[in-house]
Each structure stands twice: as C-alpha cells, then as structure tokens.
C-alpha cells in the first residue's frame, strides 16, 4: 500500500519491546488488586460533551482513550484530565494541531501514563515513529525535518508507542463498517474514522467500554466539538460514514456491548 519495504522494516524492528505488542502493558503494575476487569473510557470530541460534567466519571476508569484534537485544559469538568492512550495518524495529528492550536490544542497529551497509538494510514506514520524512536528528525516526505519531540515531548521511550496492524484497519472497513462506497471508484478514500478505529480497538481489548462524545441520533442539537466557541454544524465527508458508525454505536449500546453517553 505505497509504503516502502525498507521504511516498514526499519520502523517495526524498533518496536521490539514486549510493551509494543500489548495494549495494556502496565496493567500488572497498576491494575486494582481486587479486579481483573479492565474498564476503559473512550472519549470522542463531540459537542454532546459540552456541559456534560462527566469528567470525573471518565477519569475513574482504568484507562482513558482520546483522539485527534483532544483539548483537556479548561474542559476538565466535562471531559476529564487523564489520557492513557492518544490515537491518531500523522495526518490527523498535524491537522488537529493546525486547526485547534489557537483554542488550546498546542501539543499532544503528555503524562507518565500516556501511550501513543498510530493508525497506519501512510508512510508518514512509519517515518514519524522511526524518527521518534531514533531521536532524530524525519528524513523525508511531507514531514521532512520535523522533530518528533515537538509533538511527543522529550525522553521518549519505546514502550510509549503502539501501532495498529493494517489488517485490523482493513477488517474494520471491510467487515464492521462496510459501506456502499466500497463498490464505487472512490473506494480507496473510505476508512473508519479515527474515533471509530479507537473505539473498536478498545472493544477488542478492554473488558468494559464506556463511550463518551460520539455521534448520537440527536447530533444536530450539539456543536461539532465540545470545545467550539460558537455552534458549528457537523459536516459529513465521503471518506467516513458517520451515520453508519452512529447506528453501530446505538446497536452496541442496546445490546450492552458498550455504555454510550446519550446525554438524556
């Protein structure tokens, strides 16, 4: 899929610690002594969270997943403070920093517990991981000369990085979120949204999943993002099928597979 074999091989050979192969690599050290059940909060950026006051509930989970323009400062009461996993592609990360920098998203979440989960969308992702793990600049492509420490902070450790397998991403697209666009000439642009990939990855690894800030049938009542200063209408693009994703979250909620925050 247009990724040079040498880049692929060099990058994946650096993800060589046991922590890179497990989502919850620190569970034995931090897990509650009286429970083996991993409880996860997956936090989207939907406007439904504005004024929700569910931040404390989110932070009480064992792990907290966030995505893209995850602005926390100033919104802690609604979205919580913790970030265990930040999920993104290099493209969505750069777009989020450019789009939301002026309203508070100036860097990625950084804490002792934070891990970074790359979605393998392009060779940009492999190049960024390689540069981060070798403490060097990105040496080619659209992000050439970029310094990963600008995004992830200093003292990067191999254990902080994870990457979803491309076959997992294809599985999400072709099986769980199959759309009629896959029969068209535009099939190559379609994929699960970053938030959907994050939520579905959590469903494959956590014992209990609570989803906050995801699209619901009354989405028109809320602004696009919880951090919007004025009402912004949600826009639908061809590369994702948000209404299909919405129907899936509703089905999962009704069947008790996830607990979806619906505001009511």
From TrEMBL:
Mode of membrane association: Single-pass type II membrane protein
Catalysed reactions, as listed in the record: a beta-D-galactosyl-(1->3)-N-acetyl-alpha-D-galactosaminyl derivative + CMP-N-acetyl-beta-neuraminate = a beta-D-galactosyl-(1->3)-[N-acetyl-alpha-neuraminyl-(2->6)]-N-acetyl-alpha-D-galactosaminyl derivative + CMP + H(+); a 3-O-[N-acetyl-alpha-D-galactosaminyl]-L-threonyl-[protein] + CMP-N-acetyl-beta-neuraminate = a 3-O-[N-acetyl-alpha-neuraminosyl-(2->6)-N-acetyl-alpha-D-galactosaminyl]-L-threonyl-[protein] + CMP + H(+); a 3-O-[N-acetyl-alpha-neuraminyl-(2->3)-beta-D-galactosyl-(1->3)-N-acetyl-alpha-D-galactosaminyl]-L-threonyl-[protein] + CMP-N-acetyl-beta-neuraminate = a 3-O-{alpha-Neu5Ac-(2->3)-beta-D-Gal-(1->3)-[alpha-Neu5Ac-(2->6)]-alpha-D-GalNAc}-L-threonyl-[protein] + CMP + H(+)
Q: Which cysteines are joined by disulfide bonds?
A: 40-206
Task: Please tell me whether the keyword Transmembrane helix is annotated for this protein.
Answer: yes
Task: Supply the InterPro entries for this chain.
Answer: Glyco_trans_29 (IPR001675), GT29-like_sf (IPR038578), Sialyl_trans (IPR012163)
Q: Name one GO molecular function term.
A: alpha-N-acetylgalactosaminide alpha-2,6-sialyltransferase activity
An example of a Gene Ontology cellular component annotation for this protein is: Golgi membrane
- Into which EC class is this enzyme placed? transferase
**Homology family:** Belongs to the glycosyltransferase 29 family.
Under which name does UniProt file this protein? alpha-N-acetylgalactosaminide alpha-2,6-sialyltransferase
Q: Which organism is it from?
A: Geotrypetes seraphini
Q: Which gene encodes it?
A: LOC117368311
């Amino acid at each position: 899929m247009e990724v040079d074999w040498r880049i692929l091989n060099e990058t994946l050979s650096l993800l060589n610690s046991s922590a890179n192969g497990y989502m919850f690599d620190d569970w034995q050290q931090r897990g509650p002594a009286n429970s083996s059940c991993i409880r996860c909060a997956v936090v989207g950026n939907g406007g439904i969270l504005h004024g929700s006051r569910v931040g404390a509930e989110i932070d009480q989970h064992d792990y907290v997943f966030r995505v893209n323009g995850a602005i926390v400062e100033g919104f802690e009461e609604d979205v919580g403070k913790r970030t265990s996993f930040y999920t993104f592609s290099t493209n969505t990360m750069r777009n989020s920093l450019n789009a939301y920098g002026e309203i508070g998203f100036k860097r990625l979440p950084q804490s002792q517990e934070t891990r970074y989960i790359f979605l393998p969308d392009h060779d940009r992702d492999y190049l960024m991981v390689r540069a981060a793990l070798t403490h060097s600049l990105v040496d080619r492509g659209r992000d050439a000369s970029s310094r990963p420490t600008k995004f992830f902070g200093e003292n990067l450790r191999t254990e902080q990085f994870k990457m979803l397998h491309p076959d997992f991403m294809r599985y999400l697209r072709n099986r769980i979120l199959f759309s009629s666009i896959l029969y068209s000439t535009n099939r190559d642009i379609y994929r699960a949204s970053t938030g959907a990939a994050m939520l579905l990855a959590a469903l494959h690894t956590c014992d209990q999943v609570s989803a906050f800030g995801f699209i619901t049938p009354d989405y028109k009542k809320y602004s696009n993002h919880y951090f919007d200063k004025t009402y912004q209408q949600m826009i639908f693009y061809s590369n994702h099928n948000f209404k299909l994703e919405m129907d899936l979250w509703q089905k999962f909620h009704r069947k008790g597979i996830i607990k979806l925050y619906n505001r009511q």
